[in-house]
Design a protein that fits this description.
Helix content is 40%, strand content 15%. It has 126 residues and is an alpha+beta fold. The longest helix has 21 residues.
Amino acid sequence: MPVCKSCGVDKPRKEFRRYRNAGRNRNSSGIYKTCKPCHNDKYRDYKRRWDLENKYGITLEEYNEMAKDGCDICSKTNEQNLVVDHYHETGKVRGVLCTMCNTGLGKLGDNVEGLTRALEYLNASN
């Protein structure tokens, strides 16, 4: 059984991704040196860092610092559902929001006027 280069565990071959063209300039076994879970974790981390740096101009460490207290509106702390909120016109980062708060802002026009109309509506109906 092959050993994963990343986690060091002996695993069955089916736990490793295969090269498409195993015969060309690849290792003789035709499989990747890291198991699927380790490969996916590494790719997910790389993709997250790339997205934060290239879309928003912040590092993963800066994101983690902003996200440590949870959503900037409702304070929910489920870090899997926290997204970077930014001005769409300038790209400037405003903070981190949970998916629900971010979607709510977008549906209200992502501006003060939309939020004000929603507040007026709620106040009038009470």
